[in-house]
Amino acid sequence: MELVCPAGSLPALKAAVDNGANAVYLGFKDSTNARQFKGLNFNDKRAAEGIEYAHKNGARVFCAINTFPQPQGWKTWTAAVDRAATLGIDAMILADMGLLDYAASRYPQIDRHLSVQGSATSYEALRFYKDNFGIRRAVLPRVLSLDQIRGLAKHSPVELEVFAFGSLCIMAEGRCYLSSYITDESPNTRGACSPAKAVRWQETSQGLESRLNGILIDRYGKGESAGYPTLCKGRFEVEGSVYHAIEEPVSLNTIDLLPQLQELGISAVKIEGRQRSPAYIADVARTWRQALDRLENSAAEFAVDPAWNATLAGLSEGGLTTIGAYHRKWK
Amino acid sequence: MLKLSLGPVLWFWSRQTVFDFYANAAEWPVDTVYLGETVCARRRELKLADWLEIAGVLKDAGKQVVLSTQTLIESEADLRLLRRICSQQDYLIEANDQSALQLASNNNLPFVTGPGLNIYNVATLKVLAKRGLKGWSLPVELGRETLIELIAELKAEGLDLPAEVFAWGFLPLAWSSRCFTARYYNLPKDNCEFRCLQHPDGLELRSREAQELFRLNGTSTLSGARYDLLRELPDMVAMGVDTVRLSPEHQGMAEVVQRFDQVRRGEIPYSDPLTVREAPPCNGYWYGQPGMDQRA
Hints:
CATH superfamily of chain B: Aldolase class I
Largest sheet of chain A: 8 strands, parallel, barrel
Strand order of the largest sheet of chain A: 1-2-3-4-5-6-7-14
Number of helices of chain B: 9
Oligomer: heterodimer
Structural class of chain B: alpha/beta
CATH topology of chain B: TIM Barrel
Radius of gyration of chain B: 18 Å
Distance between the termini of chain B: 27 Å
CATH class of chain B: Alpha Beta
Largest sheet of chain B: 8 strands, parallel, barrel
Number of strands of chain A: 15
Largest interface: A-B, 67 and 71 residues
Distance between the termini of chain A: 27 Å
Number of strands of chain B: 12
CATH architecture of chain B: Alpha-Beta Barrel
């Protein structure tokens, strides 16, 4: 299985490659990808340097152009596809059907991967994307359980990549409009969920409050650790109860499932987190490399090194991890 | 004239409630009715045969009937139902994901797309037109300006693809395989005791400052405020919108339909406020603002 790591910057890309990533994925400095953060991502010059570095070290580079262009932005998005092609990218990660069509007709020789934002949750959906746009690989949504992935993998016409570690989206990606309902930006339109520009922190007599466009997302008592106010991970009130009504602030960690994922024929595991630091990327890539190498040596005797989970838990939101929907009980 | 459609029922209602609702709807001045369960595979008060029976009644009453497919397709059982829907020949399909696009187009069945299918540009519409697309819904997070450009580009391309706009009701904003109603009751999804039946218009989720943010509806999350574009109807007619969608609620729906009908006919001024059941209004998406905003 291939280890696919995020690169939000050139130092992060090098950290990923140096620590065993088989492929890195990056995006341009604009809304054409789903991690539009200030100070993050690549211009053409940095991307060229990154691609050269990765290729020299035997790693591939994927370019995420996985938001949904509207008429006024169409040329910016097709230009991103053109730029990625010119730069010599190994694969494009796309979600929008119009853009997939553009890439398939202009650059048939460059691999197309279906982004998780393309919301393919069945093999019939995968067939649709394969038949119409010739995708080679698809990244599966984090809402599927291992059993569901098994069913899908059995009939899949394309390679499959699954999320292994990092932030956990609990909604079907690519079809979640919660962020644009509260702010004016969503992953689909602007590549941003719960955008930083809308976040405010306030120390009050009742505790530390996090707000998103004025809406109270959470309030922390003394001793509670505060997390980024991703709107689906706040504490809200339903019929008088205050709780994490949608999801707790936890991260995804599937390292325990590696033998099963391999057995299902999964081609690649993906680390989330282009917004993370080079040091974080280095630690995560190194840990997963060790795990994948051990799996390679002997799948039958694969056992998770407690040190791996300690490292990964230390890097996770709230120090908590879950295997998420991969475990049926999660639901 | 601008057409009115009744979207699929997004909530979980009892079998009798659904039959009664559509018996009434047969008399309402709506042109199109979308039928079927689009949210959760566990909601089986009605079988496909029941939906087809309702479809027959509505067709006889002169409505165009469209069969809506499940938004999040996850299991082989989901696909089996989808295949059955996509193998009948009597009704148009509302495809709500790419699995439905695949099955409908492979069976040469004409289809339209629902608001949860991502259509953000004309290049996407052109791809789907080749596969049998007959009409499309604007995703709920897109607004007036984008729609004007989409319609203009379609015209320039010589494509006749009628546009539908979600114009009234709680906005479907997210789908998950996780159930938030079961979570509220501390029940596993697989043994949810069908608690959604107790909440025919969802569970209200508020901020700790009592702001109505969302409505939890099983595996789906809807807006806490009610989208209302009644006053925009004249503008939509001018833009070339074909249909506006009203999303079913179990009370007051006859009045809602009547009011939209009167406004589309120009019988009453569109500024006349529509007062139905308690919920804050919103229209932000239409103006390119946060969806929850209400522009005065």
